[in-house]
Design a protein that fits this description.
Radius of gyration: 23 Å
Number of strands: 11
Distance between the termini: 84 Å
Largest sheet: 6 strands, mixed
Shape: globular
Number of helices: 11
Helix content: 40-55%
Structural class: alpha/beta
């Protein structure tokens, strides 16, 4: 049947409206270096689903876990800054090469409990937001890891038990701390840890209970000591180019989702620790806590590193001092 001019015009208008609606939809690929089962990855998946719902399907986030996009942990902020990905889940302590001040929360024993870390973030979060903005991105939410433990071939009862232990650390603060303890720290991103354990390049690892399960550490090591020596958080940040391309309505909706879920994600971290410690025990890992004597010795080695950090990164001093004034 032949169509008249009005019918042709109506069809063209309908196509234009449909195409316009399709182009209004935004798709973001999110880089996550952690495996699918990791709680940070599960948080990211929950966030993506909530964003899709809150924006009525206008913003769709596809989570790529396990480093599938080829971006390693230390490259996270630079990848978002440079537009390699619009959004990423990023371990803050691995970004100190870009901004040394981001190392504040990983100073040994400065925030050993989750309430301590929540208090620290009241002073630290504005700094993180400012660094992100300087690197062309916006922080959507911050979520801590469970406390950092020490996995080792032998039990650690005293500082003597750590002498010469070749141990994986994440950042410069970890390097400084374990050197002070007499160990031999080696900085490396997560993707290299399990191969290095298998090859015998490292003999120990400092990381969370969650990562211990992710890496099936019971295949290589038999002991874990819950030092809880270091706080460590991930942030999810989005490129300002991608963010500014959204409508104000979608921006507000995503901000509301992030604010609502961040508290739940912190609770997920607390629950994650209990769950993963149980899994480690089930696989034969022997788990100990530091004795009061060892705890005191660890703190004695840690505190000088706070002042050294303030000297090395002067902008960190107001944040650290303000926090300690309230904490103490």
């Amino acid at each position: 049947m032949k169509q008249g001019p009005l019918a042709t015009f109506a069809i063209a208008c309908a196509f234009a409206i449909t195409a316009g609606a399709a182009s209004a939809e935004t798709s973001w690929d999110m880089s996550v270096v952690w495996p699918e089962g990791n709680f940070h990855t599960q948080n990211a998946l929950a966030f993506a689903e909530a964003v899709k719902e809150a924006t009525n399907g206008e913003v769709n986030i596809t989570v790529h876990s396990g480093g599938a996009l080829g971006i390693k942990g230390p490259e996270g902020m630079a990848a978002v800054r440079d537009g390699l990905v619009p959004i990423a889940d990023i371990l803050l302590s691995q970004q100190v090469g870009e901004a040394p001040i981001l190392g504040i929360e990983t100073l040994p024993y400065i925030a050993p409990t989750m309430p301590d870390l929540a208090l620290l973030h009241k002073f630290f979060r504005p700094t993180v937001d400012a660094v992100a903005a300087e690197m062309n991105q916006k922080v959507l939410y911050l979520v801590p890891w469970p406390g950092q433990a020490v996995y080792s071939p032998n039990k650690i009862n005293t500082l003597d038990d750590m002498q010469g232990l070749t141990i994986r650390v994440v950042d410069a603060n970890g390097t400084d701390f374990f050197k002070a303890l007499g160990a031999t720290p080696v900085q490396m991103p997560w993707g290299e840890v399990v191969p290095s354990l298998a090859a015998g390049t490292i003999k120990g690892v400092t990381t969370s209970s969650s990562s211990g399960v992710d890496g099936a550490f019971w295949e290589f090591l038999k002991n874990m000591n819950t030092f809880n020596w270091q706080a460590s958080s991930n942030m999810v940040s989005v490129s300002l180019d991608a963010w500014n391309a959204l409508s104000p309505e979608d921006q507000k909706a995503i901000e509301a989702v992030a604010e609502k879920l961040e508290g739940q994600f912190w609770l997920n971290s607390r629950a994650e620790d209990d769950k993963r410690l149980a899994t480690l025990r089930e696989h034969g890992m022997e788990i100990d806590a530091p004795s009061s004597e060892l705890q005191a010795a660890l703190l004695e080695k840690a505190m000088p590193l706070w002042d050294a950090f303030k000297t090395r990164v002067p902008d960190s001093a107001p944040v650290i001092d303000s926090y300690l004034a309230v904490k103490n």
